Amino acid sequence: MPVNKPSFSQERVLNRRRPALLAGCAAMVVLTVAGCGSGGGTGTTAKDGFTQVPQKDGALTVWVDATRLEAAKLYQKLHPDVKLDIVTYDGNANGSNYLQTKVQLFNRTGKGWPDVVFSSQNNEVTWAVDAGFAAPLNKGLIPEATLGQFANGANDVCTVNGTLYCLRNDLSQVVLWYNAPLMKKFGYTVPTTWEEYQRLGEKVAKEHPAYLVGDAGDSFTPEIYLWASKCGANDITGPKAVSVNTTSEACTKMAKLMDVLIKNKSMSISGVFSTDFAKAKADKVLLMPGPAWYGGAVFKSTLKTPAQQIAAAPIPQWKGDTAPSTGNVGGGTWLLSQHSAHIKAATDFLKWVTTDNAYQGEKAPGFPAHAPAAENWLKAQGSSGYFAGDLGALKDASSQVWPGWGSGQFSQEAIWAATVKPGMTQGKTIASLLPAWQDTIVKYAESNGYKVSQ
Amino acid sequence: MTLTRSLSGSAHRRRRGAGRQSRAGVAFVATYVLLLIAFGILPTGYAVYFAFTDAGGTFTGFSNFVTTARDFRFMDAVGHVAVYLVFWLVSLVVFVVGLALLLHRVASGTVSKALRFFYYIPGALAGAASVLVWLFMLDPTVSPVSSLLGTLGFDTFGEVVAPGNLALLFAIIAFWTGAGGWIVVMYGALNNIPKDVMEAAHIDGAGAWQTAWHVQIPMLRKWIVYMVILAFAGGAQLFVEPQLLALASVGVAGRDYSLNQLTYDFAFQMNNINGAAAVSVELLVVSVSAAALFVARSGFFDAD
């Protein structure tokens, strides 16, 4: 219902010749907005799979986070004729829900929506479609040919019942980052199986105590280790259905591996962004399973690891597993508003920002979801000279993300942080916390209206 | 107390200025009433309307209250807020009254002025800013008192913000930010106790303790009740401290901790504005009942 509200009020302003009818309509707005709107002819058109408001000239409002500000500014520089109103917000980082909060307020007031918005979360469509905010993109706005160029499965998180409601900005496939010169100095080889990984961790604890083979202290820890291990903690089976099982073998064997390494201190539990980690462990990282954006955001910017040290290898696999699988930590999405009065300009911006080499292929900090841009990005990373060796492992991993872990409306990261992390701090093992973890996931899922099977 | 005294003092001037004064009074009250209606009564009415209807505006009785109370976080949040209130109100009453009495006994003007200023400083920081100060204080890696935290057995931020410590931490933060202003208010109230009463106590041989216990504290009673009512209402609405802590600890501690956070979650994460309104109406009812109880038991509105 709120969808039709703004168009109706515009009609009321434009059509001054028929005040009596309008007064009637105005009275009716309280009762049935939709009914009055359809009777009066509001200027809305059904096109591209949704009802569009009358299109107007004017500035295109774009919401981005601080990191994506560069993208919007670059677009403005390359398209000086487009009037752009760039607004920075927190990008919904850490599940802050800022965007959702604002959209629901805009829905109540009937105005204020941004035309295009970036979110650092990839579960926005779980609410943005029901809220009537996200516009369908594969019903005419973005050509199939362009959509086909995105990495396999990249836009799964944007799809509801076969309709695409957002475009993925970057992929966050998990790889095994390592310090190449340090590995060489210690005489270790990069492990390819989890069994080897665990043995190496035990060796490091004995031979080079204080050095680390990983970190398990972040809220997204389960998305690195347990997702890669194909643990069925978060299998979103339908728009409002989830299957949760955290005590299967896939989960417990990874939990036990982590418990061993946490106990011998070759795996830290402080979290890579904690003050503690940057201060005491920044130069002790030997290996580190982590998403694609660790390269720039963690090693280069946060830990200030010098150039020519960090390299990426494929994430280890369990011995005997045939198909390689890995996890994924976030990866932003771009949404286009159904309420936009500048759909053409908005679509142009959206297409440019997700696919154009000028940004995604050259400047983007994360691994682009758009495959041709990703090719270019890898080349650009190679010539930047920061990494030791090429980042080919990222490309392989981009299509190996295990599909059995979904993006629900409730935040898995928040649940892990509040349920498992405090226990780990008290010295409990992850294996012993798995049942409590499942219990909390189920409670959150149910309270968000999900049908849960265990 | 101050008010009645100054009014009786100006009694002889009243006749001439009565008309002007009453007009000024009406103007002041009218402004307040307008603001109260716009930002107090109307939103409250709006919330009550929401609490008893569904998203489509149909009357639903108590179903919003039942749904929200059945949420698995509800009883936890009630427990958290209750424990926090106990810590916060007890510490507030004991330390504010104690420190104000101490301040009142300090004869030297400079020391007293300096202390008053000192007590008041934290209160001058805006709520969110003072919480951020505490987030630094509580993180052993950056805290200026990290050795103290170390002695208490806390080596990482995660250990400090363990679930069991939260109520106490929030009470400490709230005390640090909110108590200074109250100490100054209590000090003012102590200064208003008539000199002859204090002298009579002194002549009767009452020491510092006896004067405080039998004379000063009973005469502060209304101020203490006033403080408790406001602190109770404020404390029941606990939000900023846990919310910021949740952000700072990346969700490890403080998420869904208080009832107000739960309303925020209902309204904006679960798109259940009506449920959120139901919880806030419950908070209002509890706070108003508590205030009514305190007022009735303490004779708050009795004339002196």
UniProtKB/TrEMBL annotation, chain A:
Gene3D superfamilies from the UniProt entry: Periplasmic binding protein-like II (3.40.190.10)
Taxonomy, superkingdom: Bacteria
Pfam families from the UniProt entry: SBP_bac_1
Keyword annotations: Cell membrane, Lipoprotein, Membrane, Palmitate, Signal
InterPro entries reported in the protein's UniProt record: Bact_solute-bd_prot1 (IPR050490), SBP (IPR006059)
UniProt name for this protein: Sugar ABC transporter substrate-binding protein
Automatic annotation (TrEMBL), chain B:
Domain of life: Bacteria
GO biological process, one term: transmembrane transport
Ranges that cross the membrane: 24-52, 81-103, 115-137, 166-190, 223-240, 273-296
Main location: membrane
Subcellular location: Cell membrane
Membrane topology label: Multi-pass membrane protein
Record-level GO cellular component terms: plasma membrane
Domain ABC transmembrane type-1: 78-294
Keywords noted in UniProt: Cell membrane, Membrane, Transmembrane, Transmembrane helix, Transport
Coiled coil: none
Family under the similarity heading: Belongs to the binding-protein-dependent transport system permease family.
Record protein name field: ABC transporter permease
Source organism (scientific name): Streptomyces dysideae
